[in-house]
Structure formats: structure tokens, C-alpha cells
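Lab meeting, item 3. Inverse folding demo.
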């Protein structure tokens, strides 16, 4: 087989926006970025999306489409010094400043979320004045990783992972137009498998195809690239998970929502995604403790006890055995009765507490000194244990809040049982009072 040091993904890099696979929501006719280019205008942009879906390629093509110089930087190894050199190189001279044909250069910063605040701030003046057009690429959510001041000066666009149809089209294009692969007789039957392993990453898909062709049997054409060959090359699926990035928050959110929605299978799947990617099991256990109280509460008080026990056990035992404990708890919580009544109650009480600082009724205060007793502290307090069923009605809320209700019983068996008990308790007290 012919060989080259240039990877297939680089050889197949699109030469124009029309060659880009996917991202139709941004690049198709009538889509926002396409309209900018057609009008000869390019604002500063932040392109947000997973690795391997075309952020760098699109930035290069946009600069070319509007006829601008292109200055690439990587935030991984560029400091403020290198950044200022690029900004100075892009400054217009005297004639250009007079308006004679100045085209603001496109400064592309890959992994812009890795720039610290000072580095991001260094861009503000040039972006604000129009001296440069900034295109930043990030795999992180820019709401968390890019300064608000810089975000306000840029349009933010989310790129989508390629779907299986996009990956299949990309692979076929590689077989047809690549100067190396197109000279070979290749039978590709593993497009679906490659798409599944790549998980929307075009670069990963092309790398898998190239590696498979390199190790395939070339003795008798055609070269067979089937699922078995791809599996032997890939060994395992690409793990799309960044413990400090979007996937961290997205997947834990999906797990919590799956437990809340009483779907144990989905909850186990998302938890497994985190564990396989190396998420600390203590983090998952802490989230389950919160969930047990927020989403289950008094519908099943044992949920909180089990989740708390799991947190302590996970800390003591660690992986890989901690997965067994977490699996048990996730299934228990997902299949438990649900209630957010106490969660709503404490939120409502705290909201009122921020606005209301009513004095505590005197009879509920402790008269720990003679003066306090003379002032009525504790006078008239009823000790419930002195009465049948250890209950006697009396006022507990401040005068202006009498009748205020924060807690509403959930429509589950346990809380309804508590409601029935409280009703019975008050009825018995009223009957005793009337005797």
C-alpha cells in the first residue's frame, strides 16, 4: 500500500464550506454563518462543540471565504506574549487606518477555554475596535469557560456531532477522492460500526478507516474492512467524557433525571458512563445523597439512609467494588416512591425567611433569667408530653404568620399515612378538649 505521513483526516480536510459534512444549521443556505459569508461580513465567533467535528476547518474556510488573513493560535501553548505578537501583526498601517482597503485578520484560537482571564482580556480591545475578527474554538460550554466581557463581543454557535449518515458519507468520500485510498479496491461494510465508535467525531472515524486499511490483508483484493477488523483496530469505544467539562455536567444531570423519572436502566447506563471514564465514585455518591432527599424525601425516608450509607461505604472501599454499592443504590432510588414535598417546603420557608423576621412568640422563648420570666418569656407554653398522644394544639408560628403552610403532603402512601395520622391526632385533641 502507498504510504504518507499526512493523516487521512488532514488529507480530506474540506477545501470550501460546501465540502463540510454536517453543521447544516449553521452552514446551509439561509443559515446564520452562511448569510454572514454571502454578505461578505464575518463577526467574531465562538464555536462550541466536541472534538473532531470541524471547528478548526470551519474557521479556516470562513477566513478564506471572506478574503481575510488567517492567524492560528493554540491556547495550550500560546501565552500573552505570542498573543500580542499576533495582534500587533494584524494592526492596520496608516493608509489602512484611513479606510483604504483594511481587512481585519481572522485570529483563530483553538481551545480558547484554556486561556486565563488575563489572556482573554488581552483580546477585548482588538475585538471591540474591529482590529481583528476573533474565532475561538472550545470543547467546553463557553458560558462557564469564556469571560462574559468576551462573550458579549462574540456570536456563540454550537456545532453538533456528526450523525451516522454524515459519518457514512464522509467515509465514502474518503474512498472516492483520497489520492491514496482511491487507488485501492476497498470493500467497506463497517460504516455503522465506525460511526458508533467515533460517536460523532469525524477525525476519529477517518483514523479508524485509515488504520483498518493499513492492517488489512492486501494479498487478494478487495481489501475487506468489516466489523471484525474495525473491532480489532479500535479495541474499545471512544470515551467522550471530560471530568471538568460539559460531559461531566451533562451525564450526571442525565443520571439524576433518570432516577427522578424512575428509569433504573437509564440511570445505570449514565452512571456506568461516568465510572468507566474515571469519575470519582464519591462524587456520584454525594449526588445520590442529595437526590434521595430532594426527589424522594418522606415518600421513603430509608432512601436517604441507604444513600448516606453508600457514600460512607464508597469512601472506605473505593473502586472497582464501589460500583456494586452505587449500582444497588441507584436501582433502589430509581424504583422508590418519589416526592419533592419537603424540598418545596424548605425552599418556600427560606424564601419567606429572607423577607420576614417576625419575633418569636413569647411563650416559645426560654426564660433563662428572672428578668426574662418577668417579661413573659415561656409563660403559657404547653408541654405536649403531658397530654394524651403527646400532643396539644398551641400557636408556634409568629402572630402574622398563623395559618401559613409550607409543607404539603405528597400523594404517596407514606406521606398520606402521615397526613392521616396528623388529622387523627388533631381530632383526638379536639375531642378531649370537648369532654
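The presenter then showed the designed sequence:
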Amino acid at each position: 500500500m502507498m504510504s504518507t505521513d499526512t493523516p487521512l483526516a488532514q488529507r480530506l480536510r474540506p477545501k470550501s464550506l460546501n465540502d463540510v459534512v454536517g453543521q447544516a444549521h449553521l452552514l446551509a443556505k439561509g443559515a446564520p454563518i452562511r448569510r454572514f459569508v454571502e454578505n461578505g461580513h464575518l463577526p467574531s465567533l465562538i464555536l462550541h462543540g466536541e472534538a473532531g467535528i470541524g471547528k478548526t476547518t470551519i474557521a479556516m474556510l470562513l477566513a478564506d471565504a471572506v478574503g481575510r488573513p488567517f492567524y492560528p493560535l493554540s491556547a495550550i501553548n500560546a501565552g500573552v506574549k505570542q498573543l500580542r505578537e499576533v495582534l500587533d501583526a494584524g494592526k492596520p498601517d496608516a493608509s489602512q487606518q484611513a479606510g483604504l482597503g483594511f481587512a481585519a485578520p481572522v485570529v483563530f484560537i483553538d481551545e480558547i477555554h484554556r486561556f486565563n482571564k488575563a489572556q482573554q482580556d488581552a483580546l477585548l480591545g482588538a475585538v471591540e475596535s474591529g482590529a481583528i475578527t476573533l474565532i475561538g474554538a472550545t470543547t467546553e460550554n463557553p458560558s462557564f469557560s469564556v469571560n462574559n466581557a468576551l462573550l458579549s463581543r462574540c456570536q456563540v454557535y454550537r456545532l453538533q456531532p456528526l450523525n451516522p449518515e454524515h459519518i457514512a458519507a464522509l467515509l465514502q468520500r474518503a474512498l472516492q477522492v483520497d489520492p491514496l485510498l482511491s487507488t485501492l479496491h476497498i470493500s467497506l461494510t463497517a460504516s455503522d460500526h465506525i460511526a458508533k465508535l467515533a460517536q460523532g467525531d469525524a477525525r476519529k472515524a477517518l483514523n479508524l478507516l485509515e488504520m483498518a486499511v493499513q492492517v488489512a490483508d492486501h494479498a487478494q483484493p478487495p481489501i475487506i474492512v468489516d466489523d471484525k477488523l474495525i473491532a480489532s483496530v479500535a479495541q474499545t469505544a471512544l470515551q467522550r467524557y471530560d471530568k471538568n467539562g460539559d460531559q461531566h455536567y451533562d451525564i450526571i444531570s442525565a443520571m439524576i433525571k433518570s432516577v427522578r423519572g424512575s428509569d433504573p436502566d437509564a440511570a445505570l447506563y449514565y452512571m456506568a458512563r461516568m465510572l468507566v471514564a474515571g469519575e470519582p465514585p464519591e462524587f456520584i455518591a454525594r449526588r445520590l445523597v442529595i437526590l434521595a432527599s430532594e426527589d424522594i424525601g418522606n415518600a421513603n425516608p430509608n432512601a436517604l439512609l441507604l444513600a448516606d450509607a453508600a457514600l460512607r461505604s464508597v469512601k472506605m472501599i473505593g473502586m472497582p467494588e464501589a460500583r456494586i454499592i452505587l449500582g444497588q443504590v441507584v436501582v433502589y432510588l430509581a424504583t422508590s416512591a418519589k416526592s419533592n414535598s419537603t424540598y418545596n417546603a424548605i425552599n418556600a420557608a427560606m424564601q419567606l425567611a429572607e423577607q420576614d423576621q417576625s419575633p418569636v412568640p413569647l411563650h416559645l422563648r426560654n426564660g433563662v433569667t428572672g428578668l426574662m420570666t418577668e417579661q413573659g418569656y415561656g409563660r403559657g407554653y404547653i408541654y405536649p408530653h403531658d397530654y394524651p398522644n403527646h400532643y396539644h394544639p398551641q400557636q408556634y408560628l409568629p402572630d402574622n404568620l398563623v395559618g401559613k403552610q409550607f409543607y404539603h403532603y405528597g400523594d404517596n402512601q407514606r406521606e398520606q399515612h402521615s397526613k392521616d395520622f396528623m388529622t387523627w391526632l388533631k381530632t383526638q385533641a379536639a375531642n378531649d378538649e370537648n369532654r
